[in-house]
Amino acid sequence: MLKEWVKQSKPDDETLTARLEQARGELGKRQMMVKECKLPVLVILDGWGAAGKGSVLGRVIKNMDPRFFKCETLSDKTSEETRRPFLYRYFVRIPKEGQFSFFDGSWMGEVTTDRLMDKISAKEYKDHLTSIKRFERQLTDNGYLVVKLFFHIDSKIQKKRINDLESDPVTSWRVSDFDKWQNKHYKKCLDVYDDYIEATNQFVAPWYFIDSSNRKWAELQMTEIMIASIDTALKNSEAKKNAPILQNTFALKKIPLLKDIPLDKTVDEADYQKELDELQDKLKHLHNELYHKKIPVIIAYEGWDAAGKGGNIKRIAAALDPRGYEVHPIASPEPAEKARHYLWRFWRRLPKDGHIAIFDRTWYGRVMVERLEGFCSENDWQRAYNEINEFEKELTDWGAVVIKFWVQIDKDTQLARFTDRQNTPEKQWKITDEDWRNREKWDLYEDAVNEMLAKTNTDFAPWHVLESNDKKYARIKALKTVIKAIEKKLASL
Amino acid sequence: MLKEWVKQSKPDDETLTARLEQARGELGKRQMMVKECKLPVLVILDGWGAAGKGSVLGRVIKNMDPRFFKCETLSDKTSEETRRPFLYRYFVRIPKEGQFSFFDGSWMGEVTTDRLMDKISAKEYKDHLTSIKRFERQLTDNGYLVVKLFFHIDSKIQKKRINDLESDPVTSWRVSDFDKWQNKHYKKCLDVYDDYIEATNQFVAPWYFIDSSNRKWAELQMTEIMIASIDTALKNSEAKKNAPILQNTFALKKIPLLKDIPLDKTVDEADYQKELDELQDKLKHLHNELYHKKIPVIIAYEGWDAAGKGGNIKRIAAALDPRGYEVHPIASPEPAEKARHYLWRFWRRLPKDGHIAIFDRTWYGRVMVERLEGFCSENDWQRAYNEINEFEKELTDWGAVVIKFWVQIDKDTQLARFTDRQNTPEKQWKITDEDWRNREKWDLYEDAVNEMLAKTNTDFAPWHVLESNDKKYARIKALKTVIKAIEKKLASL
């Protein structure tokens, strides 16, 4: 695509100046509309070294209100970032609604440079392309505008610019070794960029090429593309767009309905204490091994109110070195969280490699409470099954062990525990009016849970039901499940 | 993708039989829902020779009501088809709403075989991939369900099946030379298929692999995939889905607003006749050359009522050999047309190469009358600008010359012509109540036309405004424009 690209011819200076003046004004207006319509806008700037991305961006933002945009320079990864999934550093920086984020350099630069430097295999490269396409599509499906710009110059202009910059001590620091390497291997780079662009040129997030041989002309192109893209995105958001529900392509394992799960399983008190000790001891050792092999583990808890999640988590956590795990209780989202993609708050809480993150309630809120309480649209939760499968695929591809628990009790057991909480002064804080209200919707929740289990029981991140009428049985089973999953992972290395 | 695919393990015979029985019943139910919800379903079956596509399809349709599906075997092209754009034979066979079409073999087979046989260049192959992605996305955006199945067997099984088929005279005809070639070059084919599948694995139309080592198991997989895909599509259609409006990526040329076009251009009566004769003579010769060089030409007329389209078309047609052109008057769509993608009726009317098709009103009805009279949804016409640009790109990539005329008059001239028609008995058939009603909406139409011109004035298929207050001036300009476009094309060969 890039190779066959036919440039628009640059207008004469007078026309250029006139169009630029008009476009700047138009962009100012769009900024207000973006704010009003709560559109989140992500603009990524990629392209050749010395193509002038930075200085064109500098020109464009001069005409914008600095309260409503952020510029991020995404060059080298911090050590915190290298210990997270590939897309982490980008996902955590997505703008909130009504705001612009400009990324000077993006996942494109990272992946193509790694490919050029043979830091990733052909297979890894392809997997990254899949991840990237999913990421960009998830953003646009969730109402984001994603504008992808590639600043293009030919090898001669690049060479001249590099020489000019280097010859002046004031600007010589702006030339990187990679820029020089790139110029020397221009043809090879072009092949890789062209391939990348072709593979990631999605209908919902297409690539734009900017002829960057002249700064003013490049500014005009960037500004006009932004205006047109914003106008399109505003049309989509006005229409309260329903993004398409996608055909499922993840292999799903059959899972029984909640009503068909026998809940009479128990554990003997004497056996319990012994088994608990042994299992916790085993997990403790495994945690150590995980740490050394840099395997991240994510344990997700969902279940009925009063099912015993808290006590269960406590028994897992008790086995772990406190420096190597974190428990994340998930309540309703904060305003800054609500203003972004709903998975953002979970991306931000991902563990470092070698660490364990335990989520007390999870991203599955989207298809349970948010669905049933109308906190998101029907289209939103219907799309979410696939989005969540994609998210968990990202985690397991990164190398994580993902363990998902549904803590199951029957309705009578819940009533008994609620009543006990109500009648026991030191437990009263654990029961609220909301718990009683949720209980009234038991059947609706049960349907939603069954649908959730069926649609997200993938082979890479399967569900495990913990029969928790006997909480002790559930704790032993949870420990065994975690141990088994970790052992399986370690054996696969 | 295909290479790294991990098969599901085949269930034991008893489970397989039970699941198959259930799935067949479920598919029967889905068929009724598809009919009721007016969902059009296109299922394409690709895969290895001797993988058993045909016989699995035979099994699946046994459980369906034959009134509601069609099977198409897409093997060799007819000569009519080779003289049309690449996607023609597929587009004209898309199902209507509520119906299934099964394609035994698809554009995948065509493109990959051409690639394997070096019948198309790497560049043509890439262009076809782009066309295919647009085609599939246009179908799903317009409410179609597209299910893409690849029937997979390894080279050993393929070899055995080919041998078995060949050794029996009753079945030996079913083995083609290509099947044998494919088996001999299994690895090379696998590379090409894998590449194709990767490139065309769109979120809205993903690929499914079917382990085809066992027929019954393959039938179960196909049936279950169809059921799940239909359920997803029904969810989308229930939601009266708004497909995303896409960011425009076609280079557009600036075009003036209608109100800024001077309409005082005239031609002298004496000059007119002379010029007309000369130009028609020239066009006649060019038509001959087009015919020999197999260049298709598509001339599209849009314009105000009474602007003089009919007389203009007559002057073009008069210059042409009647065996080599056709005029298509476009009225409101027939039921069979309304039940399909709105461009279907234009695809069906495309000329053979070397021929000229003149459209008296066109596909632009979508963004004018259908928009203003509410015959399609807002999302439909907003999407249409891009869909039409894609359609015309397909035509010009095929090699066609596409010439689009907007025949422009002012409001007073229209009134004068309407009045004249009303008052002249032999012209009265030309004026209807609808013309008067449309006239009342002049301003709305003018806005729509301006938007249409601005958004579809591509460099590959630009608009030409014919100033037609003086009809003769407009005819001369039309002839000159057609001649110039054809000469430019011939010069480029």
Polypeptide structure, described:
The structure is a homodimer of 493-residue chains. In chain A, 39% of the residues are buried. The longest helix of chain A is centred in the middle third of the chain and has 25 residues, at 269-293. Chain A has helices spanning 13-36, 53-61, 79-82, 88-91, 107-116, 122-141, 155-167, 177-184, 186-200, 215-238, 269-293, 309-317, 335-338, 344-347, 369-372, 378-398, 411-423, 433-440, 442-456, 471-492, and strands spanning 41-47, 69-73, 100-104, 145-152, 207-211, 297-303, 325-329, 356-360, 401-408, 463-467. Chain A has 20 helices and ten strands. Chain A is of the alpha/beta class. Chain A has a five-stranded parallel sheet, sandwiched between helices. The first copy, chain A, has a five-stranded parallel sheet with strand order 7-8-6-9-10, with helices on both faces. Chain A folds into two domains: 13-238, Rossmann fold, CATH 3.40.50; 258-492, Rossmann fold (3-Layer(aba) Sandwich), CATH 3.40.50.300. The interface between A and B is large, with 38 and 38 residues.
